[in-house]
Amino acid sequence: MADREATLRIRRLAIIGVSSFLLVAMAVAVTLGVSMNQSDSESSQPKDNNKSHVSDSMKAVTDLCRPTDYKKECEDSIKFEAGNTSDPKELIKIAFNVTIRSVGESLQKTRLMHDIEKEPRSKMALDSCMHLMALSIGEFRKSVQNMGSFDLNDVGDMLMNLKVWISGAITYQQTCLDGFQNTTSPAGKQMQDVLKLTMKHSSNILAIINDFANSLAQLNITSSTSRRLLQDFKAHPILCHGDFDIPLWAQAGMRRLLATGKLKPNVVVAKDGTGKVSSINEALRMVPTNNVKPFVIYVKEGVYHEYVHIMTNMTRIIMIGDGGEKTRITGNRNFVDGIGTFRTATVAVDGDFFVAIKMGFENSAGPEKHQAVALRVQGDMAVFYKCTMDGYQDTLYVHAMRQFYRDCTISGTVDFVFGDAVSVFQNCTFVVRKPLEEQQCIVTAQGRKERHQPTGIVIQGGSIVADPDFYQDRFKNKAYLARPWKIYSRTIFMDSFVDDLIQPEGFLPWAGTLGLDTCYYAEYNNRGPGSDKSKRAKWGGIKNMTPQQANAYTPVNFFKGDKWIKISRIPYTPASWNSKH
């Protein structure tokens, strides 16, 4: 009986997917419950009973909202618009439309607040909020607009896309609120009130999608099962074939180009006049809007004093330098001089499918200027190979979406790798620099605020060492692996070398007890004098990791799909580091 019910659930999944991808998100959880309720109702009540329809609709909404953290808001908002429908397709559409409308209303209120705000920091924060909420709406709309028909063989990839994009929308909303640090007007509190309901709706949508993904995993749908279903139900092309199907790169020549190692640049940037242009921003203006082919920018050796923004419509850019120490983009925007952290980045990457090879990114503001970002990344499926990111506090902002770093060097002092992306650092070196006299050094500050977010920082096969200029003083300023920036902060250190500068406690609280029991911090199979776990902090969130648990955080499993990395042809180990090294 259980097998028959599971088969029926999968069949419903296939049928629903033909009409709308988001139906997939709740087909397992909702349709089974609704059909069972309807079956019971039909056996004891007349079929044409309006009260029965209302009851079925309420039960369907309740089932839909079951996995959410804000059930009342979920149920009230959907029931208000659902009428008598118990159709999961319509309920899912309503849930998403409610969220998009809520973000849009928040955006309108923010514009009004921005127009009347006088305090400079608050006005800048509101300006950032408008940008971030527009991005948030974009992620929700992308989820809806790309929900066409699908291939059940790739349903796992599709669900991961949804979780990443919705998680990104949530991160953008939180980043808006974070921007009011050290502001003096009431705008920060007002913005919290504006976004309160919007953030609950966003959280609920993520919980619904995550619940289906977990249900699907429990059903253990195999490739052979999917093939049988495809034969039965005439499956359609996969999700996002035009925008997010990575083999499109191969069709455009990406695979051949990177396999040979001979990338013919579309434009050459050179300070000495030997290129087509002399600045990186000039080169970016040549990128076709919503580019569908690899656009290669070769940046010759030199120090480029400019602020670079890879905007959302600048997709599939490959930026190649002559080495992280030779080709460098540098700036010095910083928090102390009145700029919010989000806007201090020397280079900001918003465009999807960005690849950087042998590039250097720097914020030279210095430790006395506090938050000063060298590189901020929120474009989905970004790859960095043999790059350097140099700064002090908040050097690398792994803001959102999926990011992979290989053979890179990141230097800094306080929280110098931070953010809420799904990020993996493979064979990278983390260099702790000399901070201000009273400062402590922290390598990572991960910002996961929702328990359903797929985000985290994974450091695999890396090294954590002291900068030569700091080495003699490395025990004067204490250094730690991580601290929980947000309540569900998640960071994993595995197969890495940890030098003696790391304190025996390993981890540092952010503020009081915030996140100490709800974070997820783990170390697995590390080596070096700083890797001894016997005296680590005794928080509830610091875990002992088994080999099976560690396997969940290898790139292929953590990303839930790695075609976008493989297609770049950079060196890459998808599974256990020690299995290859």
Give a description of the structure.
The chain contains 16 helices and 26 strands. With 581 residues, the chain is α/β, with parallel strands linked by helices. It folds into two domains: 2-233, Butyryl-CoA Dehydrogenase, subunit A, domain 3 (Up-down Bundle), CATH 1.20.140.40; 247-566, 3 Solenoid (Pectate Lyase C-like), CATH 2.160.20.10. Strands 1-2-5-8-11-14-17-20-23-25-26 form an eleven-stranded parallel β-sheet. Strands 3-6-9-12-15-18-21-24 form an eight-stranded parallel β-sheet. The protein is globular and about 70 Å long. The chain starts with a helix and ends in a 15-residue tail after the last helix.
How many discrete structural domains? 2
- What's the rounded overall pLDDT mean? 85
Specify the CATH architecture of the largest domain. Answer: 3 Solenoid
With helices defined by DSSP (H or I, 4 residues minimum), what is the helix count?
16
Basic shape = globular
Work out the radius of gyration: 25 Å
Structural class: alpha/beta
> Which bin fits the share of residues in helices?
25-40%
